[in-house]
Design a protein that fits this description.
The structure is a homodimer. Chain A has 20 helices and 12 strands. Chain A is of the alpha/beta class. The longest helix of chain A is centred in the last third of the chain and has 34 residues.
């Protein structure tokens, strides 16, 4: 203790100078091996010793004698581990946690309790004997379920209640990682990704500068380079960012295209450019049109090109049609074609536009080629399937969402751009308070001025960690396996009684689109009545699925097609038995419709 | 066992039918009390029994006899708790975790190990004897630090290495929750918020539909209503969304304003409107100008109004000036004033625009009034300080980032809109595959069609949980306390030798802006040489701070003012001693400059 007080490991508050003693009196707890630790890592704080601190140290040592303080030396993580105890949380509140005085013990116990809730949830997510969801209508949840009250109040609730709220939040939610959740393109609960996201939350920082996110900024840079290499851009050169989802990534592509051809729009607005036209297919994601509306092009200047007439999933920009459209536009009323989006993996059919054919046209007419690979980009990781994106290396920009086909937790979407510097040129505002040129490090690593966001969430770490843990080969296996499962489903139902496929031929992605025809409709002649009845089948089956909680799968109408099921697989927990289960379940629920 | 096999708790894969046995053979582990559990919660799966399943159950029971299987009945969480053991992770890989066969035990051990790393980090974050950061230059981290290699490879790394990577990622990062981290408007590490974010990651879902985020969607709705009540809109009516940060929230406000006055722009583009002008102050956040550039208005149509000439922090739209500008615009070359942004808490000075005065002008000229309260919105929670936002109830839209002044983990930013339905009108694209009108629940709860994103991260839960845990009064205490601390700093340095304040008078927010004048500069006459030398002082001190790792505070130039420090407090762990420490540290490092 004598040596320790000569070399204290912390700089402490003076309790007497504080208006709120409960906060100020807290100053870090003295640990068992103060002497060693203090000498070793705290030298830089020595000059700040004061009488206050010495008093504080003395009182800290007194605290150590009380049974409450169970800390040992931090020098070794092993020694400092907390064990969960049966803590009574009913008299504890948020204000008792760190940074409160003596807050460390309740903080650790609270976090361990939360962790217990979460690991239980994880285990049950993979357990097929649990439901996918426990469905309730909005009014039921709003009315309050047995002690689960969503209303906020002026007064704090006990930590006991907070823990109950955590349990109930999970209880009444949807297990998107359950092997029988097929409802969304994003599904699954990757354990490494989950750990990565927990760490990200704990680091709680922001991507805008190297200064406060040095490791994450570099991880983003290296990962984006790797993705550009997989796209096939020479040496992985180019630029990119992780953005809050595919819609924003697609919006970036339109912004950058506009900046490339009409940089003056940034300063002068859309009136400085001719009437700009964007092209995409009618089956592409609605975010292209949304970007057109938001960025001032107008929805009607986003031309939705028809797919080919055979109703094949392959969305074909037929050369002749496109040339006609473009040729017409160039000379027609000042319309100026700017941008073509080719979709690699459409949302509903999972179809891949023929990128090379589209690239030929874009090169000929000097148009920006964007590839929306939000859903299909993951196939670049598979030697077996990457040919579906042939020509992607000719794109000017690519959207690729690892949070979809690659099973990375939400959110994780990249916009990748072939030309270096153009993101910066398009979006920079040079805010002096964030991007000071006179920092001590190489400020080209600051990313914030490339983004339309200011603060930007750390989406990279979970993905980087998964890549480390699985390797490129692990992602490849995952993708190949999901596609095999969808092939299994396709082969199982394509000739099965009671099923009709929505498009001909084998799916290109994991999307399998089909109608289930209940026995009562099978003998009905084609016509409006059958269509109307069939239109109601999928919603009814889906509603029953959700109420029984056994499985979830999406449905929708498309064009003149009545509601059909869209089955997708992106979760590595899915097995053939789960595919079988889905079919059994559809037949069980739909038999009497 | 007899009863159990008649009523199995799971539906299993047939190992023989699988192309990848390691995955398919896994089917959930049989738990100790199959009989009880199977009867109770698995009834809905009974009809799916098959011979395969029976075989599987039998083998599951055999598995239970092996020492590896340590599971007990899940019926009680207490019984099922995992204890950390000394697991050897060097021979374990991601593929050994769930959903792998026998993956539960390694999964739990891995997650507990991660949790241990994270809780250690949390403890150290609050411990003043640890550094705020361990600074390295980009090239140093890229070259690799003792086993921490950022490069990605084709082959997987062991879980041992993954755990090392997790530790190193935290080690070389920045402790934004450390009581001496003052670098950003967002700081602190709230334990409840952290728990909330961990849960959010584990739930891994998406805000676009009630269908897959029922609880989170309702929490968002109730919380936004509460925020609108605090703004003062009648009955808390209106609309809103949580968006990925203040810049995007501000972008929403401009989009919605444009839609309100020129809805045809959505369809026809900016050419359908006159030349629209946005107004904001020169001290406002750059995201207003960025939105102007992105959305097609053009930077030069975002008019930056001067602040008042006394250099007070109060950014004053002088009535006469504004009237002149607006009056001029209305009749001048077809310019059409659309939108005024009033900042509640500027980024650098923390100044509040006089909202009522600006609202008078907006009402007179029928302009959209947006209040950017990204930083200052939190003061609405404080009875003592909310008067600084007087008039906010007259705004048409408000940005309010709980991730700044309210200490909520990143990201958490709300855009609130007074007029119901306008967000939907502005942004809806009615994508059939997501927003089916024939769902079994009230689909007005689906939020996705209001957003410019498609998928949207769950930002609400941590905030909702913190509000529950602290109550409104807890947020009020937090805010009052941070403002008191900044007052303490202001009083301490305003007349102290070697300090000059950047603006006169007491700060309105926690921003305290000042120059530190090293002894060698104190006797220099005013002039260019002094300015040049002073300009270099803050960057030098900041660089030394970062290299020693003791504290971090922001600096920047502004207008014709050379680099000065901007001190802010938003972390509830900060005490007066930390403020003292910062001043001591600046003087220690800057003394010889």
């Amino acid at each position: 203790p004598a040596a320790a007080s000569a070399s204290p490991p912390f700089h402490a508050a003076s309790p007497s100078s504080s208006p709120t003693p409960a906060y100020d009196a807290w100053c870090g707890v003295a640990h068992g091996c103060t002497r060693k630790l203090g000498m070793k890592i705290c030298g830089f704080l020595q000059k700040n010793n004061s009488l206050d601190e010495k008093n504080r140290i003395a009182s800290s040592f007194r605290d150590r004698q009380t049974p409450k303080n169970q800390l040992s030396c931090e020098n070794s993580d092993r020694e400092a581990r907390y064990r969960r105890t049966e803590t009574d949380f009913s008299n504890l509140f948020a204000r008792d946690l760190l940074p409160a005085k003596n807050g460390e013990e309740p903080t650790m116990q609270f976090l361990l309790e939360v962790m217990d809730i979460l690991t239980n949830y994880v285990r049950k997510t993979f357990d097929r004997s649990t439901k996918v969801l426990d469905f309730h209508h909005p009014h039921q949840l709003l009315e309050g379920m047995e002690g689960f009250n969503l209303e906020l109040s002026d007064q704090p609730e006990s930590l006991e209640q907070i823990l109950v709220d955590c349990r109930d939040t999970l209880k009444y939610g949807v297990r998107t990682g359950h092997p029988r959740f097929f409802n969304q393109l994003s599904s699954g609960l990757d354990i490494i990704g989950l750990a990565g996201e927990w760490l990200t939350s704990t680091a709680n920082t922001n991507m805008f500068t190297y200064e406060i996110a040095p490791v994450f900024v570099l991880m983003e840079q290296l990962t984006l380079k790797k993705m550009r290499e997989m796209i096939g851009w020479p040496n992985g050169e180019g630029d990119g960012l992780f953005s809050p989802g595919g819609a924003i990534s697609n919006m970036y592509s339109v912004m950058v295209a506009r900046y490339k051809y009409f940089p003056e729009v940034k300063t002068k607005g859309m009136s400085a450019a001719p009437r700009l036209v964007l092209f995409t297919s009618e089956h592409s994601h609605y975010s292209i049109t949304k970007a057109g509306a938001a960025l001032g092009f107008g929805k009607e200047n986003v031309i939705l090109l028809s797919t080919d007439e055979s109703e094949r999933p392959l969305i074909c920009f037929m050369d002749a049609v496109l040339l006609m459209v473009l040729g017409g536009c160039v000379s027609w009323q000042g319309y100026h074609p700017l941008f073509v989006n080719a979709t690699a993996g459409t949302t509903v059919y999972g179809a891949f536009d023929p990128i090379n054919e589209i690239a030929d046209i874009c090169e000929k007419y000097n148009l920006w080629l964007h590839v929306d690979g939000a859903w299909g980009g993951g196939l670049l990781m598979s030697r077996q399937h990457r040919h579906k994106l042939n020509g992607v290396e000719r794109a000017n920009s690519v959207t690729w969402n690892p949070h979809k086909m690659m099973g990375v937790p939400l959110q994780c979407s990249a916009i990748l751009v072939r030309e270096k510097g153009i993101l910066q040129g398009c979006n920079s505002m040079c805010a002096g308070y964030l991007f000071q040129p006179d920092k001590q490090y190489d400020v080209t690593y600051d990313t914030g001025d490339k983004a339309i966001q200011c603060g930007r969430h750390v989406d990279i770490f979970k993905f980087w960690l998964m890549w480390k843990a699985k390797g490129t080969t692990g992602f490849e296996e995952h993708i190949d396996r999901c596609l095999e499962l969808s092939e299994y489903l396709y082969n199982k139902i394509k000739d099965r009684e009671g099923y009709e496929m929505v498009f001909e031929g084998q799916p290109q992605h994991t999307n399998v689109c089909f109608w289930y025809i209940p026995p009562g409709l099978r003998d009905m002649p084609p016509g409006d009545e059958r269509r109307e009845r069939l239109h109601k089948v999928a919603p009814k089956i889906k509603a029953m699925m959700m109420e029984s909680g056994t499985t979830m799968v999406g449905y929708q109408p498309q064009g003149n097609k009545v509601n059909f099921f869209r089955m997708v697989v992106s979760n590595h927990a899915v097995t053939r038995s789960d595919i079988d289960f889905l079919i059994d379940e559809i037949e069980r629920l739909g038999n009497d419709l």
